[in-house]
Amino acid sequence: MSSSEVIDELWSVICDRAENPPEKSYVVDILNHRKGIDKSLEKVGEEATEFIIAVKNSDYNAKVGEAADLIFHTLLALRAADVDLSDVMSELENRRR
Ligand SMILES: N=c1c2ncn([C@@H]3O[C@H](COP(=O)(O)OP(=O)(O)OP(=O)(O)O)[C@@H](O)[C@H]3O)c2ncn1[C@@H]1O[C@H](COP(=O)(O)O)[C@@H](O)[C@H]1O
User: Fold this and answer.
1) The dihedral of CA 91, 20, 66, 9: what is its sign?
2) Which domain holds residue 52?
3) What is the pLDDT along the chain (97 residues), one digit of tens a residue?
4) SUPFAM superfamilies this protein is in (predicted)?
5) Cα–Cα distance measured from residue 89 to residue 83, given in angstroms and rounded to the nearest whole number
């Protein structure tokens, strides 16, 4: 799978979980949390901090793991904020020089 296919598939799974919530799902736990959008925003903050700490202090695999956590939780926050990933991708595409 290419990198963009991995992200696209993950985004589809996140949107599907939001629309058809199964009984047990981490994505649903975050998106339907009693704190509302604040839960996913809190997770982005935590994961960003953990990523920074890993980059400064940890080995390569820990950096990769924390980067994956940050990207995943950023996707959850986008969904919670009703921001479409394709609009973010178009924005990045428009910035190409
Ligand atoms: N990529 C991920 C992914 N990355 C991390 N996590 C979860 O994110 C959590 C990481 O949170 P922390 O490290 O902060 O641990 P924690 O402090 O115990 O978490 P909180 O209780 O504070 O939320 C863990 O529970 C991981 O299982 C993920 N959970 C799900 N996915 C993807 O989402 C898909 C759908 O998952 P479900 O919704 O669970 O079916 C999966 O198939 C995966 O592709």
Assistant:
1) negative
2) 3-96
3) 999 999 999 999 999 999 999 999 999 999 999 999 999 999 999 999 999 999 999 999 999 999 999 999 999 999 999 999 999 999 999 999 9
4) all-alpha NTP pyrophosphatases (SSF101386)
5) 11
Total domains in the fold of the chain: 1
Ligand 1 neighbourhood includes 69 CB (under 6 angstroms): yes
Distance from the alpha carbon of residue 82 to the mean position of ligand 1, in angstroms: 20
Residue 79 near ligand 1, beta carbon < 6 Å: no
Helix (H), strand (E) at residue 90: helix 85-94
Instruction: Tell me, in angstroms, the distance from the centre of ligand 1 to residue 95's CA.
Output: 31
Q: Is 66 in the pocket of ligand 1 (CB under 6 A)?
A: no
